[in-house]
Amino acid sequence: MSDQQPPRVATWLAQRLVSGPRRESLLGDLIEQYRLGRSGMWYWRQVLAAIVLGNAHDLAAHKLLALRALTVGWTLYYLFSFPVTWAGGIAENWVSQQVIVCEPTSFSCQFWRNQLSVELLIYVAAAVSGGIVARLHHKHWVAMLSLYAASVLFFECGMIAWMMSGSPPPETISGGELVFANLTVLVRPLSVFVGGVWAVRSDFGSVNRAVSKPT
Amino acid sequence: MVLLALVGLDDEAYGVPIAKAIEESSGREVAVGSVYITLDRLENKGLVRSHVGEPTAVRGGRAKTYFQITPQGLRAVRHAQRTLIKLWQGAPQLKGGSA
Lengths: 215, 99
Description:
The complex is a heterodimer.
Chain A: H1 8-17, H2 23-35, H3 40-61, H4 63-99, H5 107-136, H6 141-166, H7 175-183, H8 187-199
Helix pairs in contact in A: 1-3, 2-3, 3-6, 4-5, 4-6, 5-6, 5-8, 6-8
Chain B: H1 2-9, H2 15-26, H3 32-44, E1 48-56, E2 62-69, H4 71-89
Helix pairs in contact in B: 1-2, 2-3
């Protein structure tokens, strides 16, 4: 039997994201099997499957809670849009005068001014909404937060598709810039998730046990 | 499948041996996580019971959770067997020949 440590990142993820009361037993099984000769790839597959299956099971078993998580998340997302729009206008003014002074017709000029003002505030608001959703659904926070983040991603992708179908992008934007700008759509759901993880980070102490070596 | 694997493993049944037993019968890799989800559901229905063993160093200081089939679970297995046999006998395409 080997005393090798299983992949650390996978173990770290499993300790935090696997749902259900049997997490420690499951993780013990995987570590035991790894030390009996299973590959790192097998270990990773098992951890990812446990995260996905466990949280999908949580969602299926708690449909009303899932609906509540979506309602809370989207209500906050909507309510935050008012102060964000107001503060974003002020911030954008300041950024364009003090931080990014450039030709306003250039795409990258407009893009970065927007990212450093309005979008930055949206990311913060998304993170706060994710944090509240995670806190309110403490027992199943990974499943509920993932659902909310996925719905934000779905919505933002839909908005981009709708905007692009309505009017073609200006000719001043290169293909690369357009792809990059569209990729930033991932940042909002990512902010939701990061905010959620941040909000429940204090609970991680209880699962922060090191994987000890066999004697 | 999980219940049948439990019957075969007696007192030594925990996540990995159960997954292995199913893997050997089906020839496909089984996610240990999915075995635990099924076991949880079966326990809620009273078909299996569990107890936690001692933590061991080889498992990173984590204990095994052992599972046992209950009399109610055993009845459920027998019932499923009878149902399958009846369905099998009612399918003429499956009698006598090779597919």
